[in-house]
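hey m, so remember when u said the tokens were messed up on ur end? i reran from scratch. heres the input so u can diff it against urs
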Amino acid sequence: MKLVIEGMDGVGKSTIAKKVAKKYHMKYVDGLLKTYFEDKGFSQEEIAAIVKGVESFYDYKDSRIRTWIMGFANIFNLLNYQGDVVIDRHCLTTFFYNGDDQSKPLYKVMQQVAGKPDLIIILTATPETRIQRLKHRDAADRDLQEKKKLSDGYDQFIEAANILDVPYQLVATDQRNEDQVFQAVCQVIDAYKKTGK
């Protein structure tokens, strides 16, 4: 099973993805290839340098270039990891930040190359909830300075899922603690395992 945990910054993707991986004996895979480089023995300093290089494209004007740079991990993770994996972020996040009329065709190409995940779980929370979580995590978190990262955004996540015709489920995290969110996600996964949808 290739499962993806999606959502806006501060919604709890990594925390939930790691717990899911442990419970279901799945390989946890970071959406930006950090897992791959860790598995290959790269040092944290080397990985930080690679990530910094990727992040230098965040403000690049051409959305097509941004899509290829950020989207390469989408292709790589789906092709490289066999068996049961849970991927922390995937094409929907990339689409939210880079999707426009110029770049949309590239997402179809990436999908043709890599295939689709079996299921995407989109964690949702209001901007107010996410801001509180980001501040709790790190009061100096740079995400708190970026308006797009603090927007609602879920309509664009759903739009991307529909355009790419990928199966997804929404799980609301507002007014739920970590364990409650995890249990809700597990219910979605268990239902998928039984019904295939």
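this time it looks ok to me. The first strand starts at residue 2 and ends at 7. if urs says something different then somethings off w ur setup not the seq
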